[in-house]
Amino acid sequence: MSENWTLSRRRFLGIAGTTAAGLMLTPDLLAITNERPVLRFGMISDIHYADREPAGNRFYRQSLAKMKEAIDRLNQEKVDFVIELGDFKDQDATPDEAKTLKYLIDIETAFQKFNGPTYHVLGNHDMDGISKRQFLERVENTGIAKTNSYYSFDLKGIHFVVLDGNFTKEGKAYDHGKFSWEDASIPEEEIAWLTDDLKQNSLPAVVFIHQMLDESKSVKQAVQNAPQVRQILEQSGKVICVFQGHVHEERYNLINGIHYYSVNAMIDGDGPENSAYMVVDIFKDGSLNVDGFRRATDREIK
Fold first, then answer.
1. What number of helices (H) and strands (E) belong to the chain?
2. pLDDT at position 217
3. Rounded to whole angstroms, how far apart are CA atoms 151 and 167?
4. pTM, whole model, 2 decimals?
5. Which stretches of the chain drop beneath a pLDDT of 50?
6. In whole angstroms, what is the distance from residue 277 CA to residue 75 CA?
7. For 5-301, CATH number?
8. What CA–CA distances, in Å, run from 144 to 16, 136, 153?
9. Are 125 and 87 in contact (CB under 8 A)?
């Protein structure tokens, strides 16, 4: 894993000059510019909200207040949309479906205080005690059908792709906790959709997923068919960056011209100072500027 990280006020995921690695960005996107960002969005991951006592470093109950702070700040930052990268809610030590659904509704209510479009990535804990259908019926993915667990949307000249890695290697969807989180895959139907989605898209793309795509199946937090998915992203020649959750810590990798960036979890740590959320700016030259808050540190990635 690459560790070419240096501290700065913001993080720069530089894309210019990577055409030799396979990216085919438009001339406008490759032009060197110091202009204002084309688009900016807010990002949060691994909230794990439940009204229960802490367990280890996970302070479940505090995630509601942490979310309220994050949304207030992201509204002040006037970002174009907010996305969360999965494990939005959690459940009690002894699961109760009705309480689990209430936790989902409570954290979604706080999330929806954002003054703009909102999007969700499904994480494995989002199907603890409930089904994907139950989750999707109770959240808002702006402009997306309630039945879609993976989807894409365009905004201000950027194509955004949300993937769902919550399937077993046989392609069975996670449901009511009847799965192993280590058995995560992108099923063939979703693979076909992703291939077609990127083929029909002419814009630079950013991908979101809960599990990791930049590691092999030997890593527990990765989808088992990660190499197959990476090949599709690379062959499209359009993907700038993949943002990931699940590992609860910041990690960075550069593979064949695509940046893979895992982010800190909101849940980990006692007190508001141990929250984590960020603003991502996208510029015309294809660079992404990631500004972290609380434990989400600022770094420069070249």
1. 6, 14
2. 53
3. 16
4. 0.87
5. 1-33, 301-302
6. 13
7. 3.60.21.10
8. 32, 10, 8
9. yes
